[in-house]
Specification:
This protein is globular. The protein has 18 helices and 2 strands. Helix 1 (16-28) packs parallel to helix 5, helix 2 crosses helix 3 and helix 9 runs antiparallel to helix 15. Strand 1 (72-74) and strand 2 (77-79) form a beta hairpin. The chain has a two-stranded antiparallel sheet. By secondary structure, the chain is mostly helical.
């Protein structure tokens, strides 16, 4: 994506997949901030760890929490309203090492794994769809995802809210990567469905990822017949069906209702209570405020380091990760190629199908995020938007051929990535 070719443009250097996460590890462990030169090995406010301990003792309620903030109170017991998949992941860890686990350290490991998975996905997309990306593209996109998005500071925190989002990305990326490598094999397709189900039952809005996965699979198999297609859907959907049944039982066992996750019994912060009482947890009433705050609102700057003022509700993700500003010319240029065509544009149906899948997943996920009663308070930038930022990034990668028509675009993209890293570094410093 950039003029300065730091590595040979030919065959992908496999060490890049490890180099970038290793460099990010230095930042994730917070060794760059004076007074914070140690790895956080203390337990955090992580209810998933507590629920895992409850599972091991045959319970569905939590009792050993540091406090009851943001939990569900029902029949004199405390429950989680979040989907339980992260607790399932924590269960073997708690069984082996006990409940006093280093949550931040574990979340950092998942964050580093996400960077590796993300780079593998970019590599396979490039090979599968001839995106004409080279080693520098892979290198800088890895740094962008690891250090230039809210994934950076969220990976450094071991609390329940951040653990949920970082682990959801792990499941999402695993599902996409397995689908890319599945070809016509049953086992990788089944495993892709398993990780998709895990993502959906970590963050429920991730259920819309299925639209991207469907478009991706169709783009990879343009001659897929209806008969074979239905068979693939059944194989892929088996884990999600099983997880849905288990989740219905999980809800019924706690609240006597298959569809009740406990949100109506939520012990929420008074900051949210009035809005919840008047408009509920999910409502289009919140749409305009949340869209403005999480997309358009610019950060507030000041003259003293770290120069960005801490705002509890955060600010727009396009200012926290300015590379996403390239979405504007990318969309405009793609529309032009559909209507009149531009010299140099390769009209590949499969690429267009993937780009369509990006929006089919990103828009409904964003709509859900913008209609819930909070913006992610407390936060830096807009942490909820991490749920759909992967699809926007893929759209940019699949639009690089038309973006390359813009003069000096390689330098512009490089500067925007560096700006993203600087801004997110300041956010990690603040938090």
């Amino acid at each position: 994506m950039f003029e300065p070719m730091l590595l040979n443009e030919g065959k992908t250097h496999k060490h890049l997949f490890w180099l970038v996460p290793f460099i990010c590890l230095f930042f994730y462990f917070d060794w760059v901030k004076p007074g914070h030169k140690s790895i956080d090995l203390e337990p955090h406010l992580n209810y998933f760890r507590d629920l895992a301990d409850a599972f091991l003792h045959g319970r569905l309620d939590v009792t050993s929490t540091l406090n009851d903030r943001d939990l569900v109170h029902f029949n004199n017991k405390l429950y989680l309203y979040w989907p339980p998949m992260p607790a399932v992941v924590y269960t073997p860890l708690v069984a082996l090492f006990g409940p006093q686990l280093p949550d931040a350290f574990i979340n950092i490991l998942f964050g580093l794994l996400n960077i590796w998975l993300f780079m593998r996905i970019v590599h396979h997309l490039n090979q599968q769809f001839n995106l004409n990306l080279h080693n520098p593209h892979l290198l800088w996109m890895g740094f962008f995802w690891g250090l230039g998005t809210v994934h950076f500071y969220m990976s450094m925190e071991g609390t329940v809210w951040f653990v949920s989002q970082i682990m959801a990305q792990t499941f999402l990326f695993s599902s996409v990567l397995l689908l890319l490598k599945s070809k016509d094999k049953v086992v990788p397709l089944l495993l892709s469905g398993l990780f998709f189900a895990a993502a959906a039952y970590t963050r429920n809005n991730m259920v819309f990822v299925v639209f991207f996965l469907a478009c991706l699979y169709l783009a990879m198999h343009p001659k897929l017949s209806w008969k074979n297609g239905i068979g693939k859907i059944i194989i892929f959907g088996i884990p999600f069906t099983l997880f849905s049944l288990l989740n219905a039982w999980y809800n019924y066992a706690r609240f006597g209702d298959y569809f009740e996750n406990g949100i109506q019994y939520h012990l929420m912060n008074p900051y949210f209570y009035e809005n919840f009482k008047q408009n509920g947890y999910f409502s289009t009433y919140y749409l305009s405020h949340n869209f403005y705050t999480e997309v358009l609102h610019m950060p507030t700057f000041n003259s003293s380091f770290p120069f960005i003022q801490k705002e509890d509700e955060g600010f727009g993700f396009i200012w926290g990760s300015p590379l996403f500003l390239l979405l504007i010319p990318a969309i405009v240029l793609q529309i032009r190629t559909y209507s009149v065509g531009i010299k140099g544009e390769v009209a590949i149906v499969s690429q267009r199908l993937v780009r369509m899948g990006c929006w089919l997943a990103a828009l409904p996920i964003a709509f859900v995020i913008f209609c819930i009663m909070g913006t992610g308070w407390y936060q830096f930038c807009a942490r909820y938007t991490l749920d759909f930022q992967f699809f926007l990034t893929v759209y940019l990668l699949f639009s690089w051929q038309v973006l390359s028509l813009i003069p000096k675009i390689k330098w512009i993209a490089l500067l925007l990535i560096l700006a993203s890293i600087v801004i997110q570094f300041l956010g990690a410093w603040i938090y």
